[in-house]
TrEMBL record:
Pfam families named among the record's database cross-references: ADH_N, ADH_zinc_N
Domain Enoyl reductase (ER) as annotated: residue spans: 8-315
Similarity field: Belongs to the zinc-containing alcohol dehydrogenase family.
SUPFAM superfamilies: GroES-like, NAD(P)-binding Rossmann-fold domains
UniProtKB keywords: Metal-binding, Oxidoreductase, Zinc
Protein name (record): Zinc-binding dehydrogenase
């Protein structure tokens, strides 16, 4: 198999390695591709805690493909099944996954890229946000995750205010049904705009989907009294401070929507399969850039630099 190995900050190469063999309760997947996650960017930058070189295929966790070997004690998967998996060495042409962490993809998704982990993540965040018809929902940060949540909230009958940095993504949010879009540039101006759009009430639900201090501060300001502040951004660059006086005064429900239970992750992927088949979720236009495995460095750099028109990178394997 071919596997990418990150050798240092911003450097990687591809090696040829023997195929891994699945153990009891495991399957091997011949991967079609793997999504590139923004959570890779801090390890890619090489912080002090990062150890190089990575394990072959390491950092990749958004893979999908076909089962091509089955270990013992696996009941409901067979060679040839097309699947999405929660596995962790998917910057490679093959990966091993526990059978319990694999979701079969139905015929309706044949030939369609399906990075299950981030799609499942969006479904789980949406479930935790408890969005319902008639609510006003602000989504702070319109990247891949924010765009998915915009679709889901609109499909649920909510009025969505999309707040993002790039005109390209705001146009996309409008296309997906957002009622209003606001450029994320000036803190107090955004607060005033949302205040006017909501007749001074602010929003029933606000989802922060950036993972930085300022958007978190902004999201809290946009949440109404007794509203729900949902933290979906991945905050991995240090501690955060919050305005607890305001959180107390408004009586906010604050939800950290990150899941760590593998069973919940997998249920989210199943829910994503159902949502895509039903048409409530259409991620295809969000996959803006595709790279070969040897171009993983370029894929990670693009995810970091976000050139015009970029939203989500997929690394594709022959």
């Amino acid at each position: 198999m071919q596997a990418a190995i990150v050798t240092g900050p911003g450097t990687m190469h591809v090696e040829s390695l023997p195929l891994p063999e699945p153990g009891p309760g495991q399957v091997r997947i011949k991967l079609e591709g793997c999504g590139v996650c923004a959570s890779n960017l801090t390890p890619w930058a090489g912080p002090e805690w990062m150890k190089f070189p990575t394990e072959p295929g390491g950092l990749g966790h958004e893979g999908w493909g076909f089962v091509d070997a089955v270990g013992s004690d696996v009941g409901d998967l067979k060679v040839g099944d097309r699947v999405a998996a929660l596995s962790y060495h998917s910057y490679a042409t093959h990966d091993i996954a526990d059978a319990s962490a694999v979701v079969k993809l139905p015929p309706e998704l044949a030939g369609v890229p399906f990075p299950g982990e981030p799609l499942g993540c969006a479904m789980n965040i949406f479930k935790r946000a408890q969005i319902s018809a008639g609510q006003t929902v602000a989504i702070v940060g319109i990247g891949f995750l924010g765009a998915l949540l915009t679709q889901l909230a609109v499909a649920a009958g909510a009025r969505v205010i999309a707040i993002g940095r790039r005109p390209f993504t705001l146009d996309l949010a409008t296309e997906m049904g957002a009622a209003e879009t606001i450029v994320m540039d000036d803190h107090w101006k955004i607060i005033e705009q949302v205040k006017q759009l909501t007749s001074g009430q602010f929003c029933d639900v606000v989802i922060e989907a950036v993972g930085k201090q300022w958007p978190l501060d902004l999201a809290a300001e946009l949440t109404k009294e007794r509203g729900r502040l949902v933290i979906a951004g991945y905050h991995q660059d240090g501690p955060r401070q919050v305005n607890m006086q305001m959180w107390n005064w408004r009586g906010l429900d604050v939800i950290n929507a990150h899941e760590r239970d593998p069973a919940i992750y997998i249920q989210g992927i199943r829910d994503a399969v159902d949502a895509v088949v039903a048409g409530r979720l259409d991620p295809q236009k969000l996959y803006t850039d595709r790279f070969d495995l040897a171009q993983l460095d370029k894929a990670l750099d693009a995810t970091r630099d976000r050139p015009d028109g970029f939203l989500k990178a997929l690394v594709m394997y022959p």
